[in-house]
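Thread: "does anyone have the structure for this chain?"

Original post by V.I.:
We have the sequence but no experimental structure in hand. Need at least a predicted one for the grant figures.
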Amino acid sequence: MAGTDEEAVAAADDALYVLTAALLTPAKFPSVLGDDYPEACAALGLPPLADGYGLVLGQDGEGARWTVAVDDVSLVAVAIASWDCGMEHDLSPEERTVVAALPGWPLAVAVAAPNVPAPHDPGPEVAEGPVLAPPDSDAWGPAQRRLGADEIALQWAFWRDQVGDSAFPVRDGSVQASDSAGEAAGDGPADGSPAGEEPAGESTAAEQPSEGTPSDDGASADGPNGQQTGHSGIRRVLAEARAYVSSPPPLGRVRSSFAPGDARTLRADGPGWSLVARTDDMAFVLLDDEPGEVLPVGRGPELPGLLEGLDRIAVRPL
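Reply from O.Q.:
Generated one for you, tokens below.
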């Protein structure tokens, strides 16, 4: 990309007012950029280094937006951790750590540097190429699907409460899967209140009973003439996720992070789908083909083994 040009690097490095930062590593990367780590790196024109990058988003003295990629991941990680704890921390990467300066921001940033012009894209005479921009929030697509999965992972308790165990038929004492759908995480209010509330007297899709008795993959064996029914999208996602266990996917497509107790939060992505799960609980699926819908999948007899297998191959934060 043009952002790797030395002139662009110098332009962004001179008086860069840092606004925020993000990690771009196999275990943690901005999901808007791709389904896996190599894809996320490719979106920025960067080679997928084993240790990853730190992404520093800021404005230059003219107010132009820049994203600076540095190879000092620890420096950026410490800054992010400090900010998350409400502590002040000066993030000033040394010039020798700068790998590339990319025009624009790939993420939405709600703040601006004081005493400089309002955020704007660098002029073509400096950018000399495509300018990074966050995805359109009004359109549903892979980026929005992944952002929705991010939101579910961050607010698991809220989303889990929307789908009680009563939503899943019980067979032989085990909770099964449901192919009923809830509202997408990306459609909900930022304050964490219930998303897309239905008018009084109407139930959300997550509360509607599904037809037949679903198996753990959302497919029912109780359809007419013994025909298998249920949600074909859920069946496809879980089949592809099972394939990951025997044939590991690109780095970062399956990630494991901390969860309360001895559980782990799992995140898996694939062509047109995202899955979020707790190893001791259920899972949620989002699909490109079903805009704004969250599909819950109960434990059943097979999901625990699948989640255990995915956790074994998942990338974990250091």
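V.I.: this helps a lot. Residues 2-127 form one domain.
O.Q.: and Residues 232-246 form the longest helix (15 residues).
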